[in-house]
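Two proteins were folded this term; both appear here.
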Amino acid sequence: MRSLLLNERFVFGLIGLNALILFTLGFPQISPELRNALLWLDDLITICFIAEAGLKIRRDSIRGYLGDAWNRFDFLIVILSLPSLVDVFVPSDLNQYSVFILLRMARAMKLIRTLRFLPDIDRTLEGIARAVRASFLIVITFLLGLFIAAVVSQRLFADADPAHYGDPILALYSTFKIFTVEGWFEIPDQLVENLPPLAAFFARGYFISLLMVGGIFGLSLVNSIFVDAMVADNNDELEAKIDALTEEIRALQCALARTIGESNEGESQLRGEDVGGSIGEAAGDRSG
């Protein structure tokens, strides 16, 4: 059993089985007997994860275990999923209370462990962290612009369209929808119905400029910077390979040049020896 719990493939299989159990528990049509059996099986999987963490700590020591980032991540997920062990003992008539709903939500935390089994997840997370650092300033600027646009819109259209601009929260949500090009024409069309023709004309122009600045240029700029920073690692790797290949080509050119130079020197020496031999023979013939 110990070897199974320390086997990554077996643990991944438990996570997949746990996902299937949680998916099945979402159907209200299943019988109470099957539901209880699935809950007990889910708790057994949680206990297996606890045992896995205990075995790794015993094998590597607490310092060695927590020294690995993925182990710390797994340990946190296991701790967060511990309240789900109480859920099976909760009577069904108490499930409507929020505290017991949170106990059920704790079961889903175990599924986050699948992240560590994704291929190249470390490189992906490094790319995300690099992209967040690179786009942090532009995101703050975008959010500040969103906030200013929402405040201005709420002051302008609170009376004409209280459903979308009745308070700052509604205005912020409606402005964000326009920035994301969701409902960018529905909101203005509903708003201008309560405005006179001239005010409706300027309102449409206002929302068009809002869409252009925030939705097309602003959000596109945030996305482009984020994506560019995400793939920057791949570009750096390609540049490193190209530089290495260039160095190899230069080394081959230098080696080829040396080889050609040595070959030319050898031919020159042979020619010199042939000329010298010919002169010596000619001199011998004359003396004879």
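Next, the second protein.
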Amino acid sequence: MANSPNYARRRLGTELRRLRGHAGLSAEEAAAACGWGNKSKVSRIETAKISVVAHDLRKLAAVYGVEAEALDSLMACLDDTQVRRWWTDYADVLNVSYADFIGLEAEASDLRMANSVLFPGLLQSEQFARAIIAEGPLVADPETIDALVEVRMRRQRLLTDLPGVPLTAVVGEATLHVEVGGRDVLRGQLRHVLELSELAHVGVYVIPFSRTAASFIGGMTLMAFSESNDPGMLFIEYHGGMESRDSTREVRRYRRKFDFLQQSALSPDQSRELIQKRLESL
């Protein structure tokens, strides 16, 4: 199966950066050799900020001294950047950041998510997701709400279509008390999490109020990919949006933060017991 366009652009950019380094050229030198007046064009291609067309890709390959077989591999990767995937059907309701997130999430070999007050979207029931989207800071029209809920449910196939992508989710105990949509919705949400947590590749960890780490605020997602030279991606969530970061240093720093949160949480079995206890109290 072809890579998602988002991930293919990222993979192509990483390989072009490697080839440029092997050729001993700076990004500015490579741009000049290609005859491009915009000196930042090469670095923007390498960081997947802009797409590259076939003509420009051949120019870069020639400058870097890429052999025919390697060029064929680059062109195949370029073809992947133009593949249509399911989320493109929702382009009218997805902003660029969210579309990029979904595309990279679809190619991840491992997912780690942490949130202080909400279960990650991959663990949300349809009713809970609808309540969050409908009552959020940017209230959408009914048709848009329906579409965004569909997107969130479609994303969950990463977990439910076996073998499934490994997911480790760490949440604060406060998530068990957020009654967006009412108590019936929360009951359904807790049951949904308990069901998903039974999957062998899904681990849910709850940080109890009594632990110092329970004071963390916000949300983050760490994505790892199968390519050995890919450092991974970090997404930091904030009120009404998210931002992405892919520097090796920052990704490592947030991995350490995630490890601290996970180590501070209850074990998966203890977490399920706490969730079940909260469910029974409603």
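The two ends are 45 Å apart (CA to CA). The beta strands are 110-115, 167-172, 202-207, 219-224, 233-238, 241-245. These notes refer to the second protein only.
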